[in-house]
Every structure is written in structure tokens, then in C-alpha cells.
């Protein structure tokens, strides 16, 4: 009699104010995707195009929080994921989008949509479909509790694999130099 | 026979006048540090080199080595303290490593990586600080300054120019430039100054050479700062050169 397969770990991923570079680095685990896919099944993710996150074991979030929709998605992930991981510099520090944080948001919009000649005739976008930008770009841990952090811009595939394989083995994820990089 | 003190249970020899940190580094024993530089008087402000000496927490860069001291540095309690100090420095300034020319050669970053810091953790302060790009050959990004005082010490002690100083207290404490306009261009600063080269982070940088060193060949790409600092430590003749 063969051993029953253990239930698969449910994994959700998303990119908030990110560039999808962390997702590309995740795919860079290359052939390890095969053993990973034997152990996990994807819930909401750009890879599945599922639009809402259901109950999951692990959530991976790339990007900081720059608008109201990001806040809703982040809270949905926190409510549904047993373990939530901030993936990459933007999720952990706000990252390069947070370089606007010392500027006034109104002046930023004015500069881009009114002063710059290329977009000046369009006006500041005001469609109700568009999520409103926040005053600042926030790291994830300032909005919800985050369990683990994988720094890097992007984190190396090795660092992402280390954390995921630690979790799949039932260990507390542990990163050390040289897998800890901030660039 | 030289005198010794005990560092984490191992005897470390020292010469008169050496600090606990100096003697440790010379004996190939690493204690993390940031505002200490072997060529300058210790400042004792970053507290990364905090150790317990005779049971008390002290900055090892300002504590004179003495016979039979009992020093502990490599303990989980002190590693946690150092991680918190690095986290506070990251949260207090605007440290955007992915776009910084100093990345890979930055001591703050290398300390974080070596100490196991994966997040600043605290609420980020996101201060509004200026950039001074007035000088033709160098620029200052005050967003990255960690107030180590090394440029102040170097400009005063080596360059003899007193280009830099600190002003203010607490959160308002900042690096200022000694010139009528407050701008670097109007100071005596030159790109050949020692003060140009001692900045441990990316606050004072030469122009037109950013990102010249490829990733993989930067200062801390090959060796963690705990190894690099020992390789850099000054040693008297006859001491092992590691």
C-alpha cells in the first residue's frame, strides 16, 4: 500500500507597488520549480490569474503599498495566509517608489500631469476606477504583520528557494550572508 | 610576555594605549563596528562595537585594554542589540540600496547582511534631507549620512581644513559644511581629501565614477565585513598578517 500524498501547500503571490522583478527571480529557481510544484499549488497569483486570495498556507508579496487597492489586497492576503512573506526591497522598505515620500503628492501629480509638456493636455487622472494614491509609499510591515522578509532587489533565486524550502521542510526560514543582499 | 585580556574566553594580547577593539582586531578577533576607523581617534557614537567588559555594556572602541579584563562580544544578546542598532540606522535615513552607488561597498549594508538583518522593522522615518551637488568633483547625499563623524575627524586631523561639523541635537542632528553658503563648492574641500574617502556609506561620493565596479567585484561581494575588517586591521611588525 502506497503512502498517501501529503496535502499540497497552498501558495499565493502578488505584486503591489513592484516591478515584477521579484516574481521573475522566483521563476529563476529554474528546475527547482518541478519539485516545488509537487509540493505546492498556487492560489491567487499572476501565474494563475486567480483574482482573489482564498485560504492559503503561504503568501509572497512583492512591492510596497502605494495606493488604496494595495491596502485591500495586502489585507486580503493577511486574512487568508497563515504565513505572509515580504519579498524584495520594495515590500520591505518601500523601495525606489518610496523615493517620492519626501515630496508632496499633489505637487508630484501636478508636475507629471500638468507641468510636463507630454501629458499636460490630459489633466490629473480622476477616474473612479483608479485607486487613489496614498500620501507615501509604505513598507508592508507598517500596514499588517509580516512573518518573514526576503531582502534584495530582487532577492536571488537562491534566497527565495532557501526560505520556501525551509518552510516546506517545516523549519523556521533562516537567511544569512551572502543570501542577505539589499540590492 | 605581553599582557592579555579575555575576549569570549580567549586571551587577547594588547599594547599599552590600545583600546579593546584595536587589540581584538590586531589579534584577528572581529568585533562589529561602524564609526571606528583605525586611523582616527574613536568617536564611540554608533555603539555597534558594544561589548560587556567586567559585566558592563561599553563601547569597545573607547575602552582601554587592561590586563585580565573579561570581555564578551560574540553573544546572542549583543548580536540582537547590534541588529537593532543597524535597523534603527536604516529606518532613520533614506537608504535606497538598489539605486546607491556605494551598494556592495557600504559598511552599513555589509553590517546588516553579516548580522542577519532582513528588515529595518521599525516605522520608516523617511526624512526630507537635501543633496548637495554643488562641488564639481564630489557630492553629498545627506539622506545616507549615519553621523559617524569620520569626515569631520578626517577633515580636521588629516586635511587640516575643518570642512565638516555636526549641528543640532537628537533628530535634528546633521552634518554641515563649513563655507559661507553652506555649500560644498564654496568650502576648501577637494576630491583628494581624506574626508572624501572615509565615508563608510554613500553620503560623500566622487562624481562621474558611480557603478564603475561591477556587481560581484565590489568590496563586500566576495567577503563579509567580518572577514574584510580583519584583513584591513593595522598590525605591528611581527603580528600575523591575515
Write up this protein.
The complex is a heterodimer of chains A (183) and B (242). Chain A has helices at residues 21-27, 33-39, 68-80, 89-93, 105-115, 157-168; strands at 9-15, 40-42, 56-62, 65-67, 81-87, 133-138, 148-150. By secondary structure, chain A is α/β, with parallel strands linked by helices. Chain A has a domain at 9-100 and 133-168: Rossmann fold, CATH 3.40.50. In chain A, the strands form 2 sheets. In chain A, strands 2-1-3-5-7 form a 5-stranded parallel beta sheet, with helices on both faces. Chain A has a two-stranded antiparallel ribbon with strand order 4-6. The longest helix of chain A is centred in the middle third of the chain and has 13 residues, at 68-80. The termini of chain A are far apart. The model of chain A has no long low-confidence stretch (mean pLDDT 95). Chain B has 2 domains: 4-74, Ubiquitin-like (UB roll), CATH 3.10.20.740; 97-206, 2-Layer Sandwich (Alpha-Beta Plaits). Chain B is built from 6 helices and 10 strands; from the N terminus they run E-E-H-E-E-E-H-H-E-E-H-E-E-H-E-H. In chain B, strand 8 and strand 9 (174-177) form a beta hairpin. The longest helix of chain B has 17 residues, at 76-92. The two termini of chain B are 22 Å apart.
Amino acid at each position: 500500500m502506497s503512502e498517501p500524498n501529503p496535502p499540497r501547500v497552498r501558495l499565493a503571490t502578488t505584486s503591489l507597488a513592484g516591478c515584477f522583478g521579484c516574481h521573475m527571480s522566483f521563476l529563476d529557481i529554474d528546475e527547482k520549480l518541478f519539485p516545488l510544484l509537487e509540493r505546492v499549488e498556487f492560489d491567487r497569483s499572476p501565474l494563475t490569474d486567480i483574482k482573489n486570495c482564498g485560504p492559503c498556507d503561504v503568501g509572497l508579496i512583492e512591492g510596497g503599498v502605494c495606493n488604496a487597492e494595495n491596502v485591500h489586497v495586502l489585507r486580503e492576503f493577511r486574512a487568508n495566509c497563515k504565513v505572509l512573506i515580504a519579498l524584495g526591497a520594495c515590500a520591505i522598505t518601500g523601495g525606489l517608489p518610496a523615493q517620492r515620500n519626501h515630496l508632496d503628492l499633489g505637487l508630484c501629480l501636478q508636475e507629471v500631469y500638468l507641468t510636463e509638456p507630454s501629458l499636460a493636455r490630459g489633466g490629473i487622472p480622476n477616474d473612479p476606477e483608479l485607486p487613489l494614491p496614498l500620501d507615501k509609499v509604505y513598507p508592508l510591515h507598517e500596514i499588517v504583520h509580516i512573518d518573514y522578509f526576503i531582502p534584495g532587489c530582487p532577492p536571488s533565486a537562491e534566497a527565495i528557494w532557501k526560505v520556501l524550502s525551509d518552510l516546506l521542510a517545516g523549519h523556521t526560514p533562516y537567511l544569512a550572508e551572502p543570501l542577505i543582499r539589499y540590492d | 610576555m605581553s599582557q592579555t585580556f579575555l575576549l569570549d574566553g580567549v586571551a587577547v594580547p594588547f599594547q599599552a594605549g590600545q583600546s579593546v577593539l584595536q587589540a581584538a582586531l590586531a589579534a584577528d578577533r572581529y568585533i562589529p563596528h561602524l564609526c571606528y576607523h583605525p586611523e582616527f581617534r574613536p568617536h564611540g557614537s554608533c555603539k555597534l562595537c558594544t561589548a560587556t567588559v567586567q559585566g558592563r555594556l561599553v563601547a569597545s572602541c573607547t575602552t582601554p585594554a587592561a590586563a585580565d579584563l573579561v570581555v564578551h562580544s560574540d553573544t546572542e544578546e549583543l548580536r540582537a542589540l547590534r541588529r537593532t542598532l543597524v535597523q534603527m540606522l536604516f529606518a532613520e535615513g533614506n537608504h535606497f540600496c538598489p539605486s546607491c552607488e556605494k551598494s556592495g561597498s557600504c559598511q552599513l549594508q555589509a553590517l546588516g547582511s553579516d548580522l542577519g538583518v532582513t528588515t529595518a522593522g521599525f516605522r520608516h522615518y523617511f526624512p526630507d534631507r537635501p543633496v548637495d551637488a554643488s562641488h564639481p568633483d564630489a557630492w553629498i547625499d545627506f539622506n545616507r549620512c549615519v553621523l559617524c563623524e569620520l569626515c569631520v575627524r578626517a577633515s580636521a586631523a588629516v586635511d587640516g581644513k575643518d570642512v565638516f561639523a555636526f549641528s543640532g541635537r537628537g533628530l535634528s542632528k546633521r552634518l554641515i559644511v563649513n563655507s559661507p553658503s553652506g555649500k560644498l563648492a564654496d568650502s576648501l574641500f577637494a576630491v583628494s581629501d581624506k574626508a572624501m574617502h572615509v565615508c563608510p556609506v554613500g553620503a560623500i561620493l566622487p562624481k562621474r565614477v558611480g557603478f564603475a565596479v561591477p556587481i560581484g567585484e565590489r568590496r563586500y561581494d566576495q567577503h563579509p565585513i567580518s572577514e574584510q575588517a580583519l584583513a584591513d586591521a593595522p598590525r605591528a611588525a611581527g603580528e600575523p598578517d591575515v
